[in-house]
């Protein structure tokens, strides 16, 4: 069975191109699609439905992604899930990064140098094979790390913008600017808690719970939440 998985960060984005890419390459693929903001796999209802389906018949299953970023933007989690599925016999295909397809990894792993029966020569052969394994695995890890780096970079640019706003506020001075600086100081910790804990972004808390935990007004909470969506909308 061939499955396709397509994800966008928010509902106003278009998923068409990603679906077209999958359908063009695999017309018979059964598609799972969803809008989900966040870097982690947990909380993605459609992807987890797909995984449950695949676990039932893993050896005969293939999952097609438009790119590695659609599988995971959390490097550690993505690498772990990749090799978990690989060990189960699931075939993973990444249309934009074919060099990390499981078939490519399997082929590289199968091209190991065979034993010669000579004890000394086999020590070198074993070492060479281990280097090959490490290099191939590193390619996969780097793909997921790059996927996460793109999100980390956008977050860092956002933080730098906030730091710059704080610096300008301090330089200009005045009661109004002091008030704005104080608001920024309160705002960013609140937004960070929303990013980390909201179910929308892969956390464990509902909006209602978080409003109480953070201690802010509902309209302020949803304003911050919308800002977070806009910050990562391209991802």
Explained architecture:
The protein is an alpha/beta fold and 235 residues long. It folds into two domains: 2-145, 3-Layer(aba) Sandwich (Rossmann fold); 186-235. The protein is built from nine helices and four strands, in the order E-H-E-H-E-H-H-E-H-H-H-H-H. The protein has helices at residues 16-25, 45-56, 68-71, 75-88, 102-110, 119-172, 175-197, 207-214, 218-231, and strands at residues 2-8, 30-35, 62-65, 91-94. It has a four-stranded parallel beta sheet, sandwiched between helices. Helix 4 packs antiparallel against helix 6 and helix 6 packs antiparallel against helix 7 (175-197). The longest helix is centred in the middle third of the chain and has 54 residues, at 119-172. It is globular. The chain starts with a strand and ends with a helix.
Shape: globular
Low-confidence stretches: 171-182
Q: How many domains in all?
A: 2
And the CATH topology of the largest domain? Rossmann fold
Mean pLDDT score: 77
Strand order, largest beta sheet? 2-1-3-4
Task: Give the class from helix and strand content and strand pairing.
Answer: alpha/beta
Task: Please count the beta strands (DSSP E, at least 2 residues each).
Answer: 4
Major sheet description? 4 strands, parallel
| SS strand fraction | 5-15%
Rg over CA atoms: 23 Å
Sketch the topology as an H/E string, one letter per element.
Answer: EHEHEHHEHHHHH
- Helicity, in percent? 55-70%
CATH architecture of the largest domain: 3-Layer(aba) Sandwich
CATH class of the largest domain: Alpha Beta
- Going by CATH, the homologous superfamily of the largest domain would be Resolvase, N-terminal catalytic domain
What distance separates the N and C termini? 28 Å
């Amino acid at each position: 069975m061939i499955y396709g998985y397509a994800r966008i960060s928010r509902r106003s984005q278009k998923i068409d191109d990603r679906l077209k890419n999958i359908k063009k390459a695999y017309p018979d693929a059964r598609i799972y699609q969803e809008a989900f903001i966040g870097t982690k796999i947990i909380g993605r209802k459609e992807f987890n439905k797909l995984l449950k389906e695949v676990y039932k018949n893993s050896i005969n299953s293939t999952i097609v992604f438009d790119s590695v970023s659609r599988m995971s933007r959390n490097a550690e989690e993505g690498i772990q899930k990749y090799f978990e599925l690989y060990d189960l016999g699931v075939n993973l295909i990444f249309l934009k990064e074919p060099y990390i397809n499981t078939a490519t990894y399997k082929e590289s792993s199968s091209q190991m140098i065979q034993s010669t029966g000579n004890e000394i020569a086999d020590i070198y052969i074993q070492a060479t094979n281990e280097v090959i394994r490490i290099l191939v695995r590193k390619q996969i890890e780097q793909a997921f790390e790059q996927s996460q780096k793109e999100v980390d970079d956008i977050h860092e640019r956002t933080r730098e913008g906030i730091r710059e706003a704080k610096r300008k506020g301090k330089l200009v001075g005045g009661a109004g600017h002091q008030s704005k600086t104080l608001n920024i100081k309160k705002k960013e910790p609140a937004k960070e808690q929303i990013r980390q804990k909201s179910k929308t972004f892969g956390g464990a808390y509902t909006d209602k719970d978080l409003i109480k935990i953070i201690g802010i007004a509902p309209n302020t909470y949803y304003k911050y939440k919308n800002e977070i969506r806009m910050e990562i909308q391209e991802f």
